[in-house]
Amino acid sequence: MHDDHDHPNVSHDHGHHRAPPQKDHDAGPMGAYEVLEEAVRSLLIEKGVLTAEEIATQVDLMDSRTPALGARVVARAWTDRAFKKRLIADTRAALAELGIDIGTLAEFRVAENTAEVHNVIVCTLCSCYPKMLLGIPPAWYKSLAYRSRTVVDPRGVLAEFGVSIPDDVAVRVHDSTADLRYIVLPMRPRATKGWSEEQLAAIVTRDCMIGTAVPRIS
Amino acid sequence: MSEPKRKTLKRKGAGGRAVHDVGGLDMGPIERAEHDPALWEKRTDAMLILLRDNKRRVLSVDSHRRAIEDYGQQAYDSTTYYEKWIRSIRNLLVEQEVLTREEIEARMAEVRARHEKAGRTTSKEKIPW
Amino acid sequence: MVKAKRGAWSGEWRVGRGNPVRGPHSPFPIPRSRFIKGDAVRIADRAVLGHCRTPWYLRGKRGVVAAIHGAFRNPEALAYHKPGLPALPLYKVRFRQRDLWDRYTGPSGDELEVDIYEHWLERSE
Fold first, then answer.
1. Closest in B33, B83, B120 to A33, CB measured
2. Is C8 part of a structural domain of the chain?
3. Span between the terminal Cα atoms of chain A, in Å
């Protein structure tokens, strides 16, 4: 009913080297917006505002930010109580400990799921998302349907994702309206006692960190 | 490739709620299909981040959002996420006098001509200013 | 180019150990704030000119300050290439869903939290 696997958005064929420019020729007719992108990019490069190298580096950087990164952080928080405290108190610094630089675009906060509270993240006004940790958001997160309904009917939205939260657990929705980006820290399933961090990270999907899924053991 | 185009809820002017401000409305079932972004979309994302960085500050995420919010419901509902983005970048570059409308339109014509010559059809759709 | 100016306070420009570089959206320390955690607040209900990050569905609604995030440049000014200073305290405001929506059918414990800039908050009695 919901996806158990995420496919990291990486240039998979070329290891640490930059992939050669992808050809769009097989993608059918070129839309007007794609034409516009090429026009704007070429003009900005000519005028020295940007370089092709900077653009390619930035594309690679975003490709390297995937839910797997977030899953690592969650797994560490599950196995290291002191790290979890630091992660909640100062998320930027804790991520920096793991070598993850989130840049200056926004600050991050963690919404911790407990036996009493299940958190869900949305941005009703646009599509704010913790991209520097999780990569680019899925299309549904950016959709008018998700943005409009999650604040008023979160349990209905969760049901569409196959998630049912009991009535004695509060659902807490976070609408990211400012410069804070939210990541849900899901609850660790009890049956994972003794698991390694790697095993734990494998059950933390992107949707678990948005709040539209909970970690499941297959 | 794009979000499916369908009739959406008319909501402009309902006592002041802006077109993008949709929290609390019911805009239908959530379509779960996922796709990897095209290269042009990734480059659009990259350009936005570069144009707002400390080195350039040509635009900010706030001016970018504002530019998108100004589109009007028809354009807002019928364009995809990155179509909104590249149009906003275009508008802000002109607003900030980094590029001119004429330069952009001339370059678009050149880009189309080059791709057509190489055997790829290009859309003649005009993106409203 | 917008350069941030130092305010009247001798601020600590490093917020959190991992943030030596400042960007336009980096938080400022707060010299003082109008509200503190636990305060009952009401979201202002007024007409908006231009860009606004206080959603329509919250206008006039009552909630409680759950946290203060720091002070940030005003997005309503940044949207028009202005510096957006002085920075405004930004609050995490918590609402009961049943207070927001007539038709909310979920349990009474369900909540919603939103980040709101100080100039959109009023004291609620």
1. B83
2. no
3. 13
Summarised one tens digit per residue, pLDDT across range C25-69 is 888 887 688 999 999 999 999 888 889 999 999 999 999 999 999
Q: Which residues of B are less than 8 Å from C60 in CB distance?
A: none
Q: Is residue C22 part of a domain?
A: no
The enclosing H or E element of C29 equals: none
Q: Active site residue: A11, A42, A64, A123, which one?
A: A123
Stated pTM of the model: 0.88
CA-nearest residue to A148 within chain B is B23
Which residues does chain B have within 8 Å of residue C78's beta carbon, measured at their own beta carbons?
60, 62-63
CATH numbers and ranges of domains, chain B: 39-117 (1.10.472.20)
Catalytic choice (A11, A42, A126, A143): A126
- Structural domain containing residue C47: 40-123
C92 contacts C70 by C-beta, under 8 angstroms: no
Residue A76: DSSP 8-state = H
Amino acid symbol at A206: R
Please give the structure tokens belonging to residue A81: 């109580």
Distance from CA of A108 to the nearest CA of B (A): 16
Look up the ipTM and state it. 0.92
Can you list the domains of chain A with their CATH numbers?
A: 23-63 (no CATH), 66-210 (3.90.330.10)
Residues A73, A90: Cα–Cα separation, whole Å: 13
